[in-house]
Amino acid sequence: xxxxxxxxxxxxxxxxxxxxxxxxxxxxxxxxxxxxxxxxxxxxxxxxxxxxxxxxxxxxxxxxxxxxxxxxxxxxxxxxxxxxxxxxxxxxxxxxxxxxxxxxxxxxxxxxxxxxxxxxxxxxxxxxxxxxxxxxxxxxxxxxxxxxxxxxxxxxxxxxxxxxxxxxxxxxxxxxxxxxxxxxxxxxxxxxxxxxxxxxxxxxxxxxxxxxxxxxxxxxxxxxxxxxxxxxxxxxxxxxxxxxxxxxxxxxxxxxxxxxxxxxxxxxxxxxxxxxxxxxxxxxxxxxxxxxxxxxxxxxxxxxxxxxxxxxxxxxxxxxxxxxxxxxxxxxxxxxxxxxxxxxxxxxxxxxxxxxxxxxxxxxxxxxxxxxxxxxxxxxxxxxxx
Length: 386
Hints:
YojJ-like (1, 5-stranded mixed beta sheet, alpha+beta, 7-stranded mixed beta sheet, 25% strand, RNA Polymerase Alpha Subunit, Chain A, domain 2, 15 strands, 12 helices
């Protein structure tokens, strides 16, 4: 065991676990779950092609594995750019998140949303979270305006140029209005809901923002978070949604690196388990070898007046497996197969041999052995002449 758990192996697993952890953070922050599905599919196909000796499949999948990094960068270049932008901006954003909203702002938003619902004025209000939105949203007009009920109502007045877009709220201010949001790729909302609701789901399935939507046709209010849309039937539910987002924003925040080291414990556990599994399959098992030995039989518990005259065969062939270094140092003299002749008299006997009959070092395992029986002939020992 000490030969297996070495310092180099621990460092090896720790570095791979760190890389997996950063990848999982990337997937979590960018909501790029298709990356995880793609990685899992490629890994599964690669594993099966090796284990089942699927020659054609292995030939087809090997180029994907070889050029995985290049393919990854090309396919997910926009997500990678947003992720590194998040890393660069996270420190400053984390320090100011607690000041994002307050009770007054939440009250103004609630009042404006309820008024627009009563008037059936279509609207989308996006409350940004930790993740930057600049690379996701399009268009819009910069405002940097203080949040008030009259300003919110005027922006969504159908006579204004930006009423069809969304407003973006950052750091307790309306930073932009008339913004165009990405549409949800897999919109699972109600079939009767249109582009506004799909756009609200689109921005929230890619980021940690929250979007509030007012339907122009029905005057209903909905909230989207994590790409999931739900209806808010009354003022209290609107206030609860805002207060829930507000309380999340006001949790104590830490610097980015402290958060990486101290937070996301579930992702850390998954990373360590994944790294250990990879090490086991690709390193440990790669160092596990098999080797054949021919070892003698040893006959035990023979009566004092008997002796073995014939043993067929006299030796047993075994195949053992273990760590490469252990197998290389293993000698045939370190092993034997015992045959118990207790209560056996004169004659010929066929004795079964099983794995428990084979004596070997504990650090190796027996895979196969042959034969499974040995024929032994016993005869009496002649008494010496006086």
